[in-house]
Amino acid sequence: MPQTIQEISVTISEELTLTPLAGASLVNEIIKGLLYQKCQIPYPYSWLKHVIEKRRKNLQSNDNEGPPKKPNFTHEAHYRKVSAAFDYLDVVMRGINREFCETDNAIKEIVVLFGTSPICSKEVFTITIPNLARGHIERNHVAQLNKNLQKVLRTIFLSQSWMDSIDATVSCTNTYIYIKKQVKVDSAFVSEGFEYSQPPQISQNTKHFKFCISYNPSESTNCCDDLVIFEENCIERKKVTQGSASNIEEHIVWCRCRGLLKGFKDCFVNKVSVCELW
């Protein structure tokens, strides 16, 4: 019986220019929202980051003040879980940013796999990446990205198709993240946090959701049409890129983020979250 894949269409409007930086930011936000809504982390990433930075700052202050206080084992055990999840997500997001922005490789898919192991997955979420708007000067689109990214995310997270895909929660398990990309044969492997791997093995019984991001980049790749010097540089860079790309063979490879994220629940002491007591 062939595997059934539920496809979810995500259309990026013209308000957001999907440059490599915007694409990486969008993917990272989807991953963070997915982990929270699938109950692998008990609070949104922004709060997760806040409590970890607060805890680490307090630990550093305590080290400078004098002898360490007697540790609370419940607090410390929960801190280790939260800290490990935060560090893993930090590695994932920095790796994705680098893959999108610092290499010429074309990212095809991001795969988020929930399960005890990569070959025993419960649910799989695949994010397909469209052709990005390359050749832009990223800093000229930062304001546009900050203004419109949250609009795009609200449209995704409040859509009925997204709600249906995350309707059933997943019990706390492991999370693995893969990247499928098209690379040049002669390119060096410079990925941060990722390593070459075999494609993920997805069984026919696994729930598989595919987020198909559609985007039609403008024919003009120049974001500084009114500045001749920038226009000439962009056109020249485009010619060089096209000329070199036509002579180099490309192939598909898979990479997996080193390590994994272990899902966890919040911990309470006298009905108060331990994170509030750090």
Record keyword descriptors for this entry.
278 residues, 8-stranded mixed beta sheet, MAD1/Cdc20-bound-Mad2-bd, globular, MAD2L1BP_domain_sf, alpha+beta, 6 helices
Describe this structure in words.
There is one protein chain. This protein has one domain (5-222, 251-277): Cell Cycle, Spindle Assembly Checkpoint Protein, Chain A. Helix 2 crosses helix 3 (73-101). With 278 residues, it is an alpha+beta fold. It has six helices and ten strands, in the order E-H-H-H-E-E-H-H-E-E-E-H-E-E-E-E. Strands 1, 2, 3, 4, 5, 6, 7 and 8 form an eight-stranded mixed β-sheet that branches. A two-stranded antiparallel sheet has the order 9-10.
Brief rundown of the structure:
By secondary structure, the chain is of the alpha+beta class. The protein has helices at 20-37, 45-65, 73-101, 142-157, 160-165, 228-245, and strands at residues 5-11, 106-117, 120-128, 174-184, 194-197, 207-214, 250-257, 261-262, 268-269, 272-273.
